[in-house]
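User: Round two. Same drill as before: sequence, then structure, for each protein.

Assistant: Same drill it is. First protein:
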Amino acid sequence: MTNSLRVFSHYIIVSLITAGVDYSIFWLTRLILPDIFLRLMLSKGISLTVQYILIKFRVFYNRLPTRKTLPWYLLLVILNGFLVTGLIEFFSQQEFPQLVAKFSSELVLYIPNFLVLKKWIFRNTAQSDQHVQLNL
């Protein structure tokens, strides 16, 4: 298996784990938190934390400091939220059911998100160090 295929397959696994954490927490907290917004924020907050840690250390094996990668990761998450919202609205106007529109929107952005994470946010430390040395 090539390195890129291995990294992408790990990314898929992390995505499935993240979705499992998100939906599990959202479902389980219904017993103690009646407010859907609070449940959603709690489940998303925990699942995004899990995703960040797994992507950084188990997908890209990145050693860049968290202070350099986390802000960019959070910016991507926020931007992705706006893009998914826009795509859901677009697909809904095309008479897609809302759940299908959400899934389709996330699917459209799945590979672009992976590429942004790989090329800019969690770029290979050795390559980034080499890049800096070449620019000096």
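Second protein:
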Amino acid sequence: MTVALSTHPAARRLPAARWFTALCLLAGLLLPLFAYAAETVPEKTPLETLADDLRDIDKQLAKGGYTEDQLKGWSDRIAAERVVATDCVGNAEQTLLHLKTGLTSLGEAAKNETGDVARKRREFTKAIADQERRGAECRVLTLRSDEITQRVAGLYKTALAERMFAKGPTLFAVLLDNWLNVVTLGAATAFFVEEHAGFNNLSLTEWIWFAILVGAGTSLGLHLRKHRRPRVVTKLTTADGEISVGVSLLAAFLHYAPRLFAALTAAGYIYLLTYDVDPVPFVNMLLYGLPVYLLGLLSIHVVLAPRAPCRKLLTVSDAHAQAMARRLRVLVLLTYIGYLLFSTLFSQQLPEAAYLLTRGVYAALLFLNMIWALWLFAKMREQDELRWVGLLMAIMLVVSLGAEWIGYRNLATSLLRVVVGSLFAFGVVLTFMRLFHELYDALEQGTGPRPLRLRQLLGVAPGRPVPGLVWFRIATNVLLWSLFGYTLLRIWHVSAGAL
């Protein structure tokens, strides 16, 4: 009798479902095995990692096509990992010396020595052979590291020299090119204002709200400056007659509060409404940089030209302080203008000749202002060795400006980075040293509510010295100057392999 096969869809899917179930069970059984195998794979030792990295770097050097940043990264990596091989050599030599001393203590081998002595002698001999082999392997890695480090350092110096001394058109050639292409420069400027200025990103209503909020921020700052600053300046002088840096900073902040609050409100408002606009419009970049510009003015204000009754923090004459403050205000303004010129889309829209001309003129203004300020700094420090620092920096800036004008722009940029970065780092270190000096003096003398509470917390009786405070002073100075040295190495782009 013929049996009719079922045509129900579930009947056709039954074999496939069974196969799927079987595969899931098989995967569930094999998955723990694969996980166990992955867990049991031994990790590489630091020496194996060093050997693999040296092998990879050697292959990359043989292939070529590396960049300057890659060479610097390889040098830093080898310098960091080479310590493992150096420690290995030192440990192997110490262990080998200990083992040889133990073997020597057993004396010369004799025919009738006991089994324990013979076994110990064999153990010493085997351990010495193992340590000699390990020491040789580590010495090979050390020598290989030195060899590749020298190759990388040589290639890095060559690449750096090629970049530094790459010559472009001189300032005279750039001026001549722009004179012949005035129409192109005007068209590029008009296109930038129309397309990337960003004034059309907000409606008229939004601009009205912008003005209202900026006015509210300014009013709040004026209120704080009028009612809070007089109270703050009453605490300006410490118990020993010195000027408190913290109070001076707070008083300067309150003096600049109307402008700071207005700038922060404007930057925050424009960001919230146009954060998704790409590329970032020019007006956004202008407002984002405005608070930083005001903070620069605030720093000059508190150090050199504070508003009465505050006093300047530097022990220089009023005439020198006012003159230096004027120079530094111009420097901060030029820095802000440079940010607007070269960190926005404006420089990208200019023709190459116009960009180079803008850079050359800006470099002249910036470098001459810095030389102007450094020359005054040298006059202010005629009685100590720091005047030579100002003169040296001024000479470097003159060389940098000359390099910019004759076409060596990479060299000029590097010299500017070294001068500005070093001066900024030096100023930050001196500021922090002054702040910590005041903190430790207040803690030692017990002046102020916070130092008194801290002395009570430490269990120090009134009139008694704080134990170990001198070591805190020494440790703070060492830490700050160490950070300063590390920062200089980063600013000067010194690789670890060059040290």
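The mean pLDDT is 80.

User: Perfect.
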